[in-house]
Specification:
The protein is mainly beta and 524 residues long. The chain is 6% helix and 35% strand. The chain is built from 6 helices and 31 strands. It has helices at residues 8-12, 66-69, 74-79, 315-320, 348-352, 399-404; strands at 18-23, 38-43, 49-54, 58-64, 90-97, 102-104, 109-111, 117-120, 128-133, 138-152, 211-227, 237-240, 246-250, 254-259, 262-271, 284-289, 296-301, 306-310, 330-335, 356-359, 365-369, 373-378, 387-390, 414-416, 422-426, 431-436, 444-448, 478-479, 502-504, 510-515, 518-523. The strands form 8 sheets. A 5-stranded mixed sheet has the order 20-21-22-23-28, with no helix packed on it. Strands 1-31-30-29 form a 4-stranded antiparallel sheet, with no helix packed on it. It has a 4-stranded antiparallel sheet with strand order 2-3-4-5. It starts with 7 loop residues before the first helix and ends with a strand. This is Serine/threonine protein phosphatase 2A 55 kDa regulatory subunit B beta isoform.
Length: 524
């Protein structure tokens, strides 16, 4: 699969991944606080900014520095055949408290401050905009530089004014102590008993107006909108529309459409809640807008299916923002892999539940992650995935143990490269997997989130297959299967060290991933 980001021959060559940076690296034996664990990662559309959210409700922003240091725009330098010898580098930009813990007194329910998802919005006037959400409330944040103003040339002596707070600025009029308070000069006193401050030697005529000057700029984050009270269940997804004006939020049973400028109303576009909750058979697990078609979105379910829907049948209702009537969307197609006969077990539906979906940049393919595999779907072929990448097949004999310790319910995210030639997802022991899905690619790489990503490299041969461009019907590829629950060093996988969150740079082969409270970045 190639979205125009590079040749298929180059994409077919396995990448050599190298360590770039780490933020928040913990030392040996250091205890990690629960609130510091990273729970969301997202690059902006340009790739120049990266945002992370943690379980303490904080959002941390990073900005790219290597393109600025080279003195020009990256695209311009590439057109000039400029050799970019430096790998992508980011630095800490700012952080702010996005959410606080709350308590729902009507339902006697504690609402955690944990950030579930972060999505970047279109920037404007050098300001950055992003959406962040916890289980119940979505917030729109604006981050911009503001000049800090300070006051200079006070007429009060610093020692006299110490009891009233600090005097900002270094230019203060000199005031001899012999002068009396409130205009008292010599024997003249206007009836004021206080002697705490004095006039300057020249009297009233020597008074100067304080001067306000801008000394430095600071980054300030301000909450512009709060979108609340629209979800009865925990929000699991938010996604921006390509129109730049709307976004969706999804919980277990509903998907709502919002306008960024209207926070007190939302428009329900999907509702799978049955009249009788005992008849509930599946829930919504993830939802994503199509990258270019503003009327199209996809959502996944706990039964392993993906539905692609079109909202255009109620376009006029969306235009009036917002009608109280429930919308009725048109189902374009449903993607679901048929279960092999005789393979059903107690764990079948649990491991089939899709935890994350992502559209490729060209909008034709959808990547999905369930507990055992990554699957690539073509939206023009609803009979099955066009490629399947085995991630946890070696854990199949341990499903009982994973069920008992709740690891089987872990929600791993997935991501695609900007050119669509590779996909990646996380695993246990702080490992993540990168697979090639372009023409002629047999790439299957296992990396560790550490300063030496190849330390626990597991090379797994995968069978060659036909390229996606030549597929007719359903041609399935199974890659990366290995039958051992041990790593390359013979060590058992650590199920307490799970790499759930990662993101691929939109235009370069650079991956950011979260291992507990540490943010690791790699490039190839």
């Amino acid at each position: 699969m190639d979205n125009g980001g590079g040749s298929s021959e180059a994409a077919a060559q396995p990448l050599e991944w190298k360590f770039s940076q780490v933020f928040g690296e913990r030392t040996a034996g250091e205890e990690v606080q629960e609130v510091d664990i990273i729970s969301a990662i997202e690059f902006d559309k340009s790739g120049d900014h990266l945002a992370t959210g943690d379980r303490g409700g904080r959002v941390v922003l990073f900005e790219r520095t290597d393109t600025r240091d080279n003195g020009g725009q990256r695209r311009d330098l590439e057109m000039m055949d400029y050799s970019m010898s430096r790998h992508p580098e980011f630095r800490y930009k700012t952080e702010f408290q996005s959410h606080e813990p709350e308590f729902d007194y009507l339902k006697s329910l504690e609402i955690e401050e944990k950030i579930n998802k972060i999505r970047w919005c279109q920037s404007a006037n050098s300001a950055l905009y992003l959406l962040s959400t916890n289980d119940k409330t979505i917030k729109l944040w604006k981050v911009q530089e503001k000049k800090v103003k300070k006051v200079f040339d006070w007429n009060v002596h610093p020692e006299k004014a110490a009891g009233n707070g600090p005097i900002f600025g270094s230019h203060v009029s000199a005031i001899p102590k012999s002068y009396m308070a409130n205009g008292g000069c010599g024997e003249r006193n206007f009836g004021c008993a206080s002697n705490d401050s004095s006039f300057p030697p020249g009297g009233v005529s020597s008074l100067r107006l304080p001067v306000v000057t801008s000394q430095e700029t600071n980054l300030v984050a301000g909450c512009r909108r709060i979108y609340a009270h629209a979800h009865d269940y925990h929000i699991n997804s938010i996604s921006n529309n390509s129109d730049g004006e709307t976004f969706i939020s999804a919980d277990d049973l509903r998907i709502n459409l919002w306008n960024l400028e209207i926070s007190n109303q939302s428009f329900n576009i999907v509702d799978v809640k049955p009249a009788n909750m005992e008849d509930l058979t599946e829930v919504i697990t993830s939802a994503e807008f199509h990258p270019t078609h503003c009327n199209m979105l996809a959502y996944s379910s706990s039964k392993g299916s993906i539905r692609l829907i079109d909202m255009r049948q109620k376009q006029y209702l969306i235009a009036v923002l917002f009608s109280p009537y429930r919308s009725y969307q048109r189902l374009i197609c449903r993607f679901e892999e048929q279960e092999a006969p005789g393979t059903r077990s107690f764990f079948t539906e649990i491991i089939a539940s899709i935890s994350d979906i992502k559209f490729a940049r060209n909008g034709r393919h959808i990547l999905s992650r369930d507990y055992m595999t990554l699957k690539l779907w073509d939206i023009n072929m609803d009979s099955g995935p066009v490629a399947t990448f085995q991630v946890h097949e070696h854990l199949r004999p341990k499903l009982c143990d994973l069920y008992e310790n709740d690891s089987i319910f872990d929600k791993f995210e997935c991501c695609l490269s900007g050119d669509g030639g590779r996909v990646a997802t996380g695993s246990y022991s702080n490992l993540f997997r990168v697979f090639g899905c372009s023409e002629g690619s047999a790439e299957s790489t296992t990396l560790e989130a550490s300063k030496n990503p190849m330390r626990r490299q597991v090379q797994t041969p995968s069978r060659p297959s036909r390229p996606l461009g030549s597929l007719s019907g359903v041609v399935r590829r199974v890659k990366g299967a290995d039958n051992s629950a041990l790593d390359a060093n013979g060590n058992a996988f650590d199920f307490s060290m799970k790499l759930l969150h990662l993101a691929w740079h939109p235009s370069e082969n650079s991956i950011a991933c979260a291992a507990s409270n540490s943010l690791y970045m790699y490039y190839a």
